[in-house]
Write a structure and sequence with these properties.
By secondary structure, the chain is α/β, with parallel strands linked by helices. The protein contains seven helices and seven strands; from the N terminus they run βααββαβαββαβαα. The protein has a seven-stranded mixed β-sheet, with helices on both faces. α1 (about 20-25) crosses α2 (about 30-45) and α2 (about 30-45) crosses α7 (about 195-200).
Length: about 200
């Protein structure tokens, strides 16, 4: 066990249940392929990091899948909304004895190991670290102690999440990382020609 933990939330990759906004443009099959490619990319990034890692599944824990049971802890998301599910995951991590805990999204084709390394580096001198998303949310959140207010009274999935989170933290020592773009819509996808090419090859 290391003192650092990376949490990644994933949706179970099922046809018609992932990337639903994107599927309205490219269809369910290609939306699922997109999500699987994003999961592959996320795993490739995390594999390069020495921190402990845990995958939280949306519906049910899957074994013998993309995420190696040897290198990844596996847990089930619990809670009525995204905030509750994240709070439960952070609370569990701190109860297990981790000192620096970072959660990162699984739909970022621009994500690199350096973003996670920068997050843990920031936590050496800051209480909190945030990776802003270009859509007004955040793709990464890190902290050293549980801060429940961050997970409450938010309109998850909207452009106000980052702003509301920073309001909660206005008295705190916060480090902001480089802004990245989540892949949620076809407009987002068009910003990633390499990924778009792979999908068109289906």
């Amino acid at each position: 066990m290391t003192k650092n933990l990376i949490i990644v939330f994933v949706r179970n990759p099922e046809l018609g249940k992932v990337k639903t906004r994107l599927s309205k443009t490219i269809g369910n099959q290609k939306a699922l392929k997109t999500y699987n490619l994003l999961l592959d990319h996320t795993k490739a990034v995390l594999d390069k990091l020495s921190s402990d890692k845990v995958v939280y599944y949306s519906e049910e824990i899957q074994y013998n899948d993309l995420w190696s049971d040897t290198h990844y802890q596996k847990k089930q998301q619990k809670g009525d909304d995204l905030g509750a599910r994240m709070e439960n995951a952070f609370e569990t991590a701190f109860k297990e004895g981790y000192k620096n805990v970072v959660i990162v999204g699984s739909d970022l084709y621009d994500l690199r190991p350096t973003h996670l390394e920068a997050a843990f580096k920031a936590l050496e001198t800051h209480e909190f670290v945030l990776g802003p998303s270009l859509d007004g949310g955040y793709y990464l959140l890190g902290m050293k102690t549980l801060y429940p207010a961050l997970f409450k009274s938010k309109n998850w999935g909207t452009s106000s999440v980052l702003e509301d989170t920073l309001k909660n933290l206005k008295q705190e020592n916060v480090k902001l990382l480089e802004a990245l773009n989540d892949i949620d819509t076809f407009e987002d996808l068009k910003e990633q020609p390499e990924l778009l090419k792979k999908i068109k090859e289906l």
